[in-house]
Design goal:
By secondary structure, the chain is α+β, with helices and mostly antiparallel strands. It is built from eleven helices and 19 strands. The strands form five sheets. A six-stranded antiparallel beta sheet has the order 2-1-4-5-6-7, with helices on one face. It has a six-stranded mixed beta sheet with strand order 10-16-17-3-18-19, sandwiched between helices. It has a three-stranded antiparallel beta sheet with strand order 12-14-15. β4 and β5 form a beta hairpin. α1 runs antiparallel to α4. The radius of gyration is 22 Å and the shape is globular.
């Protein structure tokens, strides 16, 4: 299985041209004050996903313009530069790109390159994708990487894993912030819209329906129901029925344990609805999971007693995929190990975000007396305004 090892990034939003390097493990948790830059790193993953589906220009427009994304604009910062490092049992690779500001306040690629080191071969395979294009060329045919490759230049280009599929398409950002009555998660969706879970959980009910009605995945559905019941005792089960008026559509409903009354999606609290989305995301069948899950502020609206359940689900998912969290919850931080925590601080003097991974040995004496959240509160590890 390929995994992210490291990202080096410069010129992007609150990260200046000198750049920052962040190392990743199976679980990586970003903490820091409001405005420190946690969400900017989440946004970078969102940009990577947009590049995968040939929508870099759309991403740029959604965030205002290229000027808005460059660190203090093009007058101060000319380029966004990034290197993504990933590795598996049989291969190690690097994907590098530079984005330059161009007329029309858009980005064009100043450089794009892929470097692959195959186990057992001294020379890496380097693919230069050129410059001047508006969208990533990783999507083009013929760019493949295999973890079980036997030749450095195989005649058959179709190997086990497509680079784009791992680096781009399998990095999914989830933000379950919108739980208003008009939110997609509370409204009807196409019953067949079950290929993967959307970042806003707008197709949550379709995913649950598909999982429940497949004998191979039904056990995962039951596990999700059980976990929700543990934090929401009134909940017995989902009522997953296609609309009588349109059998191609379905809406979220649930059954009360005591009365057996069926409630609609508008009769679920925000926190409970978010927990339902988190449980479905993290406890779905392993083969359904994206390879990298990024969740921004998963603790929003959750009762403190549900935080431990959330951490348990994260750890369960991390046995199969990498999980990246950005949080402001001290209680959630206490559920993880120091070497899984990255502290994000904003340097007022240098006007930039700085990322520092904790080292457990450096904190050994402190941790004998205090929890991680207490060290955070006391500003021993940083991460405060």
């Amino acid at each position: 299985m390929l995994k992210f090892d490291r990202i080096t990034l410069s010129g992007f939003k609150s990260i200046d041209s000198e750049g920052q390097t962040v190392d990743f493990g199976d679980i990586t948790v970003f903490i820091g004050a409001n405005g420190a830059g946690k969400s900017n790193l989440v946004s970078f993953f969102d940009m990577i996903f947009s590049m995968a589906i040939i929508r870099l220009e759309l991403y740029t427009n959604l965030y205002g313009s290229a000027t808005s994304i460059l660190h203090y604009g093009p007058e101060k910062t000319k380029l966004i530069a990034a290197e993504l490092s990933f590795s598996g049992d049989k291969a190690r690779g690097y994907y590098r790109f530079k984005l330059a500001h161009a007329a029309g306040d858009i980005f064009i690629f100043d450089d794009e390159e892929l470097e692959i080191h195959y186990s057992g071969f001294s020379q890496p395979k380097i693919i230069n994708l050129g410059a001047g294009h508006k969208e990533s060329k990783l999507i083009e045919p013929g760019l493949f990487i295999s973890e079980t490759i036997t030749e450095p230049e195989p005649k058959d280009p179709v190997n086990d894993r497509v680079v784009c599929n791992f680096l781009l398409e399998n990095c999914s950002v989830y933000q379950f912030n919108d739980t208003t009555l008009g939110a997609k998660i509370r409204n009807k969706c196409d019953i067949s819209d079950d290929t993967f879970m959307y970042g806003n959980a707008g197709n949550l009910v379709a995913i649950l329906y598909a999982m429940k009605n497949n004998e191979k995945t039904n056990k995962y559905y039951n596990r999700i129901v059980s976990r929700i019941n543990a934090v929401f005792p009134q909940f017995e089960d989902f009522v997953l029925e296609p609309s009588k008026h349109n059998p191609n559509q379905i809406i979220l409903k649930w059954k009360d344990k005591e009365s057996q009354y069926t409630f609609g999606s508008h009769q679920i609290s925000d926190g409970t609805l978010r927990f339902m989305a988190l449980a479905t995301l993290l406890l779905q069948p392993p083969e359904w999971l994206p390879k990298v899950i990024i969740i921004d502020e998963p603790e929003l609206g959750l009762h403190p007693t549900a935080i431990s359940d959330l951490a348990g689900m994260v750890k369960s998912a991390s046995r199969h995929v990498q999980v990246i969290l950005a949080t402001q919850s001290p209680r959630l931080v206490d559920e993880f190990e120091p070497n899984q925590i990255v502290v994000v601080d904003y340097n007022d003097k240098l006007k930039r975000s700085e990322f520092n991974k904790l080292n457990e040995s450096d904190l050994a004496e402190w941790l004998d007396r205090y929890t991680l959240s207490e060290l955070w509160d006391k500003n021993v590890i940083g991460g405060n305004p």
